């Protein structure tokens, strides 16, 4: 009890610092950036949330989901179709979370209760995202419509109505409003996932990642907990899809495509597996890098990006956040003993949340 | 069954056994790891299982905890037929096991290991109390914040025993609890087992004969998947057949 308390305090400090930074960005960005910059940051926030979903399911639940784009796409399309039909955006936002969650519940039930091994879960999720891509890609023509919303095949759905204040579909949010919605949602989801990980549900999910056999032998059903974590991550990815659709006012089947699923894995690898801050940071870094690579002509942009990724995997295999953390701890250990002890306890609980 | 009557209570009235296995057989392809085993354990009984490597002791434990489904036979835990039930379901009925190769949550702290084990379906206050008690009881309070994966083998064994106790089981299975422990730790383990046995039933698999002498009353000897004999510790350790199987000669 006594010796675990400093660890909890240290991890709480990290949480509050992240929260404060998030709020500072939330309220600071509209003043510091021009319209173009703010739109760009809204896109970053949507993809950071996508990274968060992958970081949760892979880093904490240990489920190798390599097709997280399936849930991003389902969320985006669910929002687009629903908002075109309903006008008001409140229910469509909920649907963008619920539809991917239900889909994940069904898929996850067969995977986890069917005792599919980790590697095959990766293959199945990846395959499902590719199937969805092909499926939505093949919906060209006015016969493929849900209500008034035409799916549009590979052209996607253009002119998606933006979020509006609940009950006022005629007053859509402006660019600044969408930024507040996206960044605010990101902060909320981060806090929510932190809360889940601190709860007993989260502790069991992490324990199952550590040793499934032991978790079973003390009475927890790993299949159920993995399914719950898988569904939570799908809901987060779905909300990210909704924000993504709002960001451009447009969605196309590319949200389901392989590069999307691959990109989010890279966010997590660069930022740090087993952390929540890492995948968000990774998303922003990689996206900023992609934009920078596209706006210069000295090096082929794909080649440059590839080199950066190879460099990361070779030089910083644990990702940025864990490396920064252990560096910080080493610095702390040089200071008096009492502080060093606290730092070690912090490392011990693996409270990289 | 020539077991020395754990089946009768103080006044000779028959008690229902805690565990009752009948005709349990486990085949892996052509290999029969456990063959037609009948095994009965009374309430609050302490039983030691001994036998050479490959005799089927650990396989039998895996069947009792649901990690393996027996090819044939039935197992009852009090009134419940647990044959082929899921491991988590059997654990919820009150069976805890320390496995032969330590199964712990390596990336978590000692405290978190015990907390997760103690916390199933219990209030947070009660969970905390159990965690504190268990850590104190097993002398782990000093290393509660350490990551289990970084601990020495003996300490990890203690952590695993702590998780088993924290789940408050009624039947505790210990697979080689003294392996890799120092002389002093072995004594502490024996003491702990005797203390647990005041309120709980235990089955202990062990090779360490002095350790068995410290704790055992009744010993069941496994050989080649079958029960060779079941008797008091003195009778078993004096038996020529038991010596033969341990020395590699096969008893008829």
TrEMBL record, chain A:
One Pfam family named in its UniProt record: BPD_transp_2
For this protein, the record's CDD domains field holds: TM_PBP1_LivM_like (cd06581)
Q: Which residues cross the membrane?
A: 44-63, 70-87, 93-112, 119-136, 177-193, 224-247, 305-328
Main location as per UniProt: membrane
How would you describe this protein's topology in the membrane? Multi-pass membrane protein
Query: Which compartments is it annotated to reside in?
Result: Cell membrane
Concerning InterPro entries, the annotation shows: ABC_transp_permease (IPR001851), LivM-like (IPR043428)
Which UniProt keywords are present, listed alphabetically?
Cell membrane, Membrane, Transmembrane, Transmembrane helix
Please state what the protein is called: Branched-chain amino acid transport system permease protein
Lineage runs: Bacteria, Pseudomonadati, Pseudomonadota, Alphaproteobacteria, Hyphomicrobiales
From TrEMBL, chain B:
- Record-linked Pfam families: ABC_tran (PF00005)
The protein's matches in InterPro entries, at most eight in alphabetical order, are given as: AAA+_ATPase, ABC_AA/LPS_Transport, ABC_transporter-like_ATP-bd, P-loop_NTPase
UniProt keyword Transcription regulation present: no
Q: Where is the ABC transporter domain?
A: 19-249
Respond yes or no to whether keyword ATP-binding is given for this record: yes
Extract the SMART domains matched here: AAA
GO MF, one example: ATP hydrolysis activity
Q: Which GO terms describe its cellular component?
A: plasma membrane
Keywords, alphabetical: ATP-binding, Nucleotide-binding, Transport
Q: What is the name listed in the Swiss-Prot or TrEMBL entry for this protein?
A: Branched-chain amino acid ABC transporter, ATP-binding protein
Traced from the root, the source organism's taxonomic lineage reads:
Bacteria, Pseudomonadati, Pseudomonadota, Alphaproteobacteria, Hyphomicrobiales
């Amino acid at each position: 009890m006594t010796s675990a308390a400093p660890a909890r305090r240290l991890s709480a400090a990290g949480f509050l610092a992240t929260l404060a930074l998030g709020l500072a960005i939330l309220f600071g960005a509209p003043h510091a950036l021009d319209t173009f910059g703010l739109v760009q940051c809204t896109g970053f926030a949507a993809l950071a949330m996508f990274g968060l979903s992958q970081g949760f399911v892979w880093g904490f639940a240990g489920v190798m989901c390599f097709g997280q784009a399936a849930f991003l796409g389902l969320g985006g399309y669910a929002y687009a179709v629903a908002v075109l039909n309903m006008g008001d955006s409140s229910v469509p936002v909920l649907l963008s979370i619920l539809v991917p969650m239900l889909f994940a519940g069904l898929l996850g039930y067969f995977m986890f209760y069917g005792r599919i091994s980790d590697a095959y879960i990766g293959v199945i999720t990846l395959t499902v995202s590719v199937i969805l891509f092909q499926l939505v890609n093949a919906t060209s023509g006015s016969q493929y419509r849900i209500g008034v919303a035409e799916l549009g095949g590979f052209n996607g759905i253009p002119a998606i109505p933006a979020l509006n204040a609940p009950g006022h579909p005629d007053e859509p949010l402006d660019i600044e409003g969408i930024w507040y919605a996206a960044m605010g949602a990101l902060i909320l989801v981060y806090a929510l996932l932190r809360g889940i990980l601190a709860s007993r549900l989260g502790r069991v999910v992490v324990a199952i990642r550590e040793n499934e056999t032991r978790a079973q032998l003390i009475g927890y059903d790993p299949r159920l907990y993995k399914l719950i974590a898988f569904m939570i991550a799908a809901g987060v990815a779905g909300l990210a899809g909704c924000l993504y659709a709002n960001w451009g006012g447009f969605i196309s089947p590319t949200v389901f495509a392989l590069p999307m699923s691959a990109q989010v894995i890279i966010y997590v690898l660069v930022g740090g597996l087993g952390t929540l801050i890492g995948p968000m940071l990774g998303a922003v870094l990689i996206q900023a890098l992609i934009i920078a690579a596209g706006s210069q002509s000295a090096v082929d942009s794909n080649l440059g990006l590839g080199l950066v990724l190879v460099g990361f995997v070779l030089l910083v295999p644990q990702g940025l956040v864990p490396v920064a953390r252990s560096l910080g701890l080493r610095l702390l250990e040089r200071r008096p003993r009492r502080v060093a002890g606290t730092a070690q306890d912090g490392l011990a609980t693996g409270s990289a949340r | 069954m020539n077991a020395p009557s754990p089946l009768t209570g103080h006044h000779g009235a028959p008690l229902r056994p805690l565990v009752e296995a009948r005709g349990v057989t486990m085949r892996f392809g052509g290999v029969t790891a456990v063959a037609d085993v009948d095994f009965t354990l009374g309430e609050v009984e302490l039983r030691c299982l001994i036998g050479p490597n490959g005799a089927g002791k650990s396989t039998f434990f895996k069947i009792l905890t649901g990690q393996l489904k027996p090819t044939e036979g039935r197992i009852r835990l009090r009134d419940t037929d647990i044959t082929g039930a899921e491991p988590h379901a059997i654990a919820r009925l009150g069976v805890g096991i320390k496995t032969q190769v330590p199964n712990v949550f390596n990336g978590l702290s000692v405290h978190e290991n015990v907390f997760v084990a103690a916390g199933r379906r219990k209030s947070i206050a009660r969970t905390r109390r159990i965690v504190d008690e268990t850590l104190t009881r097993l002398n782990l309070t000093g290393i509660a914040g350490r990551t289990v994966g970084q601990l020495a083998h003996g300490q990890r064994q203690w952590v695993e025993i702590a998780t088993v106790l924290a789940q408050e089981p009624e039947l505790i299975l210990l697979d080689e609890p003294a392996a890799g422990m120092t002389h002093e730790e072995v004594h502490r383990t024996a003491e702990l087992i005797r203390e647990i046995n005041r309120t709980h039933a235990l089955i202990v698999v062990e090779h360490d004969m002095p350790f068995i002498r410290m704790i055992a009353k009744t010993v069941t000897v496994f050989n080649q998947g079958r029960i060779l004999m079941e008797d008091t510790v003195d009778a078993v350790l004096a038996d020529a057949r038991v010596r033969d199987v341990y020395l590699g000669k096969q008893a008829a």
